[in-house]
Amino acid sequence: MKILFxxxxxxxxAYALKKVIDLARNTWADVTILGVAPTSAxxxxxxxxxxxxxxxxxxHRYRREFNDELGQAGSPYAPERFSYEWKMVKFGLWEExxxxxxxxxxxKIRLRAGHPANEILNEAKKEGSDLIxxxxxxxxxxxxxxxxxxxxxxxxxxxxxxxLVKEDKPIKRIMAxxxxxxxxxxxxxxxNQMATIHQxxxxxxxxxxxxxxxxxxxxxxxxxxxxxxxxxxxVKNRLAEMKEFEAVIAKETDxxxxxxxxxxxxxxxxxxxKDWMDRFLSTCQSSVLVLR
Amino acid sequence: xxxxxxxxxxxxxxxxIVCKRLKPALEKAGYVVETFTRSMEAxxxxxxxxxxxxxxxxxxxxxxxxxxxxxxxxxxxGTEVIVITGFATMETARESYQKGVFDFIAKxxxxxEILDVVRKAEANRRQSQS
Lengths: 292, 130
Fold this sequence. Notes:
heterodimer, A: 292 residues, alpha/beta, Rossmann fold, two-stranded antiparallel sheet, 29% strand, B: 130 residues, five-stranded parallel beta sheet, 5 strands, 19% strand
């Protein structure tokens, strides 16, 4: 598994990093920590921001925290593999530097320059990430400091799954909403990992319209439930009326992870056109996993 | 004759979809691949043939992946084992490495990731043989 953690210098990013560390501790995923400098930063120097810039300081802090938790000798991330690699130190000037990499798994710290959401999406695509993790403000909105719509843009456009961390809360239940979008093998595997790591019970919610569920959706709910229970995951199925779903997640999600399959044919996008994703991300009081 | 030079890979995963996805990708990359969804059948095959690489899931009915990889390393220590698991925990990762696996990959993963690891394992095996 490859995890891309996109962080700025705000407290919500620090919370999200804790989730990344938890995931890495169990999955031994390759992890990239990414910061994005504003476009105004110069691209032709060794680093586009001064070393005392808040983002650079935050990236240092994230690396330190990650290594404090997982960088000890014997850990797959322990910096034990040394090699000499050519690195650009300034435009037109390269230096062969001694580089240490994780004993078995990589922790990369990267800085890009440009629009944060676009650069996060570009990095995820280039690295072949399986999961993007980012924090966002808690409460009734799900925002970044600058620009505010980074979480929505990343969730709406990523090719892979996205975990939005709102607060540093334990996850005791995964509430996964099944509707008429494709349930990929990768998304089932992601739920498996989340349920295993957090030892969380799984609740599958099938959506009904005017009290009725389509046969195909009901069948899918049963099939997905069987998939998890066959693998020893405690699973409970329930139905919820679409119109009431927003109220359900506002009322019920606390120490939970709301998982939404977001395909192009999502019924939610029909029922709640344009802004449905923003509404659910904002309504949910806990973290949200958008699956693909 | 040409087949003798190709790296032989055994894949064991109780989810047919995983075998179905991995087999063509690895064959396209030039490997000879046999897939199994039942650990006992894979174990029987090990008594007939030596594989260069084994890719195994951990959580399976019957003989689980940990017992399977233990048996592989006991039988043919030179075989590199790659663990793929949908239920990763610190303990299973640590135990896998203690048993000498080459790498531990949590699902989901992209085909490119497993191909990279297979190439590294193949290189490692060649290096240790030379």
